C-alpha cells in the first residue's frame, strides 16, 4: 500500500505482514514492515492503493493483547513506568467510566481525590493524554512525566 503518515510529511510504498488492528482515537494496523523487519503501526486513514499479495508470510511470534497492554497509544519509546495521576474529587464520575489503560487501578484517597495508576510505556503519549484532563489533575508522577508535560507546554507556547 501507499502510506501517508499522520502529519502528512512522508509518503512511502509499504509491504507489510498484518498482525492486528488497534482501536482508539485513531485506528491502526499493526504490522511487520517487511523492508526493515520490524513492527510498525499504520493509521488506517493514511493507507491507500491497498493490494493483497498472494504470498505466504513466515511465522511471526506476536501477541496483540500483550502488545496493546504494554503500550499507551500507538507509539512505543521503550520506557516502561508506573504512572500515577491524581485528580480532583469532582472528576470521580467521569473517571469511573473512563479507561486510561487496561492495567489501571483506581483508588479514592482520604481527601476524596481519585488516584489512577497504570504500567505501560510511552512518556509522550501519556503526557498528551494528561492535557485532556489538565483542569482536573492535582498530581502527576513520576517526575519524568511532569517534565514531558512541561516540555510540550513550552513547545506550544513558542508557536506563533
N- to C-terminal distance: 36 Å
Helix and strand run? EEEEEEHEHEEHEH
Helix fraction by DSSP (H/I, runs of at least 4): 10-25%
- What value does the average pLDDT take? 90
What fraction of the residues are assigned to beta strands by DSSP? 25-35%
Describe the main β-sheet briefly: 4 strands, antiparallel
The structure class reads alpha+beta
Rg result: 19 Å
Low-confidence stretches: none
Specify the overall morphology: elongated
- Main sheet strand line-up: 8-9-7-10
Total helical elements: 4
Tally of strands = 10
Can you walk me through this structure?
- With 160 residues, this protein is of the alpha+beta class.
- Helices cover 22% and strands 32% of the residues.
- It contains 4 helices and 10 strands, in the order ββββββαβαββαβα.
- The radius of gyration is 19 Å and the shape is elongated.
- It starts with a strand and ends with a helix.
- The model has no long low-confidence stretch (mean pLDDT 90).
Question: Topology of this structure?
Answer:
Blueprint: E1 2-4, E2 11-13, E3 16-22, E4 28-33, E5 38-43, E6 47-48, H1 64-70, E7 80-87, H2 92-95, E8 105-108, E9 114-121, H3 123-132, E10 137-141, H4 143-157
Antiparallel strand pairs: 1-2, 1-6, 3-4, 4-5, 7-9, 7-10, 8-9
Write a concise keyword list for the protein shown above.
160 residues, four-stranded antiparallel sheet, 4 helices
Amino acid at each position: 500500500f501507499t502510506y501517508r503518515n499522520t502529519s502528512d510529511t512522508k509518503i512511502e510504498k509499504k509491504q507489510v505482514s498484518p498482525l492486528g488492528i488497534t482501536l482508539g482515537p485513531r485506528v491502526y494496523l499493526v504490522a511487520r514492515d517487511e523492508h526493515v523487519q520490524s513492527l510498525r503501526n499504520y493509521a488506517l486513514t493514511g493507507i491507500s492503493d491497498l493490494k493483497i499479495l498472494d504470498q505466504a508470510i513466515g511465522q511471526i511470534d506476536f501477541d496483540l493483547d500483550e502488545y496493546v497492554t504494554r503500550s499507551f497509544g500507538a507509539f512505543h519509546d521503550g520506557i516502561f513506568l508506573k504512572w500515577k495521576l491524581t485528580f480532583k474529587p469532582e472528576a470521580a464520575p467521569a473517571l469511573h467510566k473512563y479507561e486510561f489503560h487496561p492495567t489501571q487501578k483506581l483508588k479514592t484517597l482520604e481527601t476524596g481525590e481519585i488516584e489512577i495508576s497504570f504500567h505501560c510505556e510511552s512518556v509522550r503519549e501519556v503526557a498528551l493524554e494528561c492535557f485532556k484532563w489538565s483542569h482536573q489533575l492535582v498530581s502527576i508522577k513520576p517526575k519524568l512525566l511532569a517534565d514531558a508535560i512541561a516540555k510540550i507546554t513550552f513547545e506550544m507556547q513558542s508557536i506563533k
